[in-house]
Amino acid sequence: MVQASQALDVLLNELSSVVSEAQAQCGRKATEDEIAAKAIKLNVFHTINFLLQYSEPIREKVRSGKLEIQGGIYDLKSGQVEFLGQSPMQSKLVKSTSTAAPSLQQKLVAVGGA
Prior knowledge:
Order of helices and strands: HHHHEEHH
Keywords: Lyase, Zinc
Distance between the termini: 9 Å
Strand order of the largest sheet: 1-2
Number of domains: 1
Family: Belongs to the beta-class carbonic anhydrase family.
EC number: 4.2.1.1
Strand content: 5-15%
Enzyme class: lyase
Number of helices: 6
Function: Reversible hydration of carbon dioxide.
Low-confidence stretches: none
């Protein structure tokens, strides 16, 4: 069985691709703060997409209407929440049949899981 810390490691390792995507979307003249703000939003959707793509129980509940996943960003200073809504990729991802992220599949095989 994959430990929660291994799944967290995978998600944290994916942050570099999120930051690269934010830099590309913001352009060369963007400030670090602008890139960071964009990366935070992209990471919210990246995390939602990860859950939808690799969790059949979550996908099934979303398909059946028993669960709705909405992204949000909590501002620690103001206490305000910026609601981002559903992932733009949700309708595509709920059709996925994956059960483990490719980066976790190797670990599952290594410990005798998959």
